[in-house]
Amino acid sequence: MSSATFPPVAAADLPARCRITLQVNGQPHTLTLDARVSLLDALREHLGLTGAKKGCDRGQCGACTVLCEGRRINACLTLAVMHDGDRITTVEGLGEPSAPHPMQAAFVEHDAFQCGYCTPGQICSAVALLDEVRAGCVSAATPDLAQGLQALDDDEIRERMSGNLCRCGAYPNIVHAVRAVVMATDGQG
Question: Can you give the residue ranges of the 2Fe-2S ferredoxin-type domain (predicted)?
Fold first, then answer.
């Protein structure tokens, strides 16, 4: 066996540290982070907001879904430094235990979870789904959303929630929960 020697690491070779401010759940948080830290790790490890989960760490499961400037994103796929100054909303910022967001309440009322691991990402995604429909964003299931929330049938909800996986299979109840919020919001059914 040979004994390998490694040259000393110069300060210039160390990862860059960046000072950023994230507006998380309405509060500014200034952090100094390694430039390679994901938004998910910044939220969980540096701010203690553990609602967004690290499921696959590859953007495939949606457990890390948060809202950035009102749009849903996979927090594991983006670097925190890319969001300096951005408004980030996690599941913790949607409501309070005494006054939950309507989507949070609907998930509880419709038993739209089992183990609960994916639930925070599912809820953030469902909140964004309603805003996307109101804004007229089309999907593969519905090319024309001129009718707004009235166009949200179960197929459309499933399509728009397809980026969020539930290993327990609570999908029917997730659709029911989203449908309940649509009906309460829009008065349609």
Answer: 18-94
